[in-house]
Design a protein that fits this description.
With 229 residues, the protein is of the alpha+beta class. 37% of the residues lie in helices and 27% in strands. The radius of gyration is 19 Å and the shape is globular. The N and C termini lie far apart (45 Å). Bound molecules: zinc ion. The site of zinc ion (ZN) has 8 residues, from loops.
């Protein structure tokens, strides 16, 4: 089931108030059109009735994909809520959820992202049946080999599944602050395949590195850097 509510929103440009319907949770099996809206950057988008400004309202969103047994929480990073606070709060609610679940219930995979681009990337990864931890491991190695040009504090690496081919993956560099997409980095598919074999032999190693719910090489690198300080 998808959950929405009516919220009174002021236009950030002209201040006009209007009641709009915003989604807190979407079930993409029951309502695939909501997934399409999300992918097209139209979900929770408001058109001002007065000045015609179009703007997106970012609220925490639960993306429920029962067919793939996955729940993705998008908790937008804001000035009030840092990444660290979001993770702590999330761990607490996960513990509560685990306590409430019957012991024999099949737990959905739970993921956490803090931006819409990461949510969209993850949806593509899941649908292409790619191994998320292996993909993040590849990003980790791209970051560490290019620390000067691809500083994780400044840049996000996103796998562009649509532009990737059978031969190579296409990663795109995004400037976190300006959101601008930049350089494309290519990575051989055969290296990914052999990394998947490593994952099969020794999944614990990848799990140790990316325990979740936020599986992100960028996060790991930023946390390491903060610990070094
Ligand atoms: Zn307006």
């Amino acid at each position: 089931m998808s959950i929405s509510r009516t919220v009174n929103i002021s236009c950030p440009s002209c201040g006009t108030q209007q009641d709009v319907q915003l989604y807190d949770a979407i079930n993409v099996e029951a309502e695939p059109e909501l997934k399409d809206a999300l992918m097209l950057n139209q979900l929770n988008r408001v058109e001002c009735s007065d000045c015609d400004l179009s703007f997106r309202v970012d609220l925490p969103l639960l993306y429920n994909d029962p067919a793939n047994n996955v729940l993705i929480h998008w908790v937008p990073e804001t000035e009030e809520a840092s990444r660290e606070e979001i993770l702590e709060e999330f761990d607490r609610s996960m513990e509560q959820m685990n306590e409430m679940m019957p012991a024999d219930a099949e737990m959905p995979k739970v993921r956490l992202v803090t931006s819409r681009v990461e949510l969209v990337e993850l949806i593509f990864l899941i649908e292409a049946e790619l191994n998320h931890r292996v993909v993040e491991y590849i990003k980790y190695s791209i970051y560490t080999r290019n620390m000067e040009s691809t500083n994780p504090q400044k840049f996000r690496l996103l796998l562009n599944v649509q532009d990737s081919t059978d031969e190579e993956f296409c990663f795109v560099k995004q400037d976190v602050e300006s959101q601008q997409l930049g350089e494309i980095l290519r990575y051989g598919r055969t290296s990914y395949d052999s990394m998947c074999e490593l994952h099969e032999e020794n999944p614990e190693e990848f799990l140790d590195m990316f325990p979740g719910p936020c599986i992100s090489a960028r996060n790991v690198l930023i946390e390491d850097e903060e610990l070094d300080r």
